[in-house]
Design goal:
4 strands; Alpha-Beta Plaits; alpha+beta; 114 residues
Length: 114
């Protein structure tokens, strides 16, 4: 699969920035990506006070490249950048070697237990 990682630094961001990011993902971003052609899955990951990241898996290299090109053109003004107050520090294409679904199964959801 054709992966993409987009990471923002949270160093120096407002103390409540992760709460704002969670709300944005739940209220807006999750639905936007649920309908993105060529996307197999996206996850949003974070380490409080360190970083916030979008991890993407696309069905084709062309789908990844098209999304990456569009995203890079407006990365500094993207919703994540506006909420955090800075542009991504990493936008990196990668290969996803394998994905396994464990016995607990996968559950798509805009929010998860904390």
């Amino acid at each position: 699969m054709h992966g993409l990682t987009v990471r923002w630094s949270l160093a120096g961001a407002a103390p409540d920035v992760l709460d704002e990011l969670r709300a944005y993902v739940e209220d807006v971003s999750f639905a936007n990506f649920a309908g993105l052609d060529g996307l197999r899955f996206k996850s949003w990951r974070a380490r409080p006070g360190e970083w916030f990241e979008g991890s993407y898996a696309f069905a084709t290299a062309e789908a990844r490249e098209a999304f990456q090109t569009r995203f890079e053109a407006g990365a500094a003004e993207s919703p994540g950048s506006r909420i955090i107050g800075s542009a991504p520090v990493t936008i990196e294409a990668c290969e996803i070697v394998a994905v396994v679904e464990g016995p607990e199964s996968f559950r798509a959801s805009a929010t998860f237990e904390r």
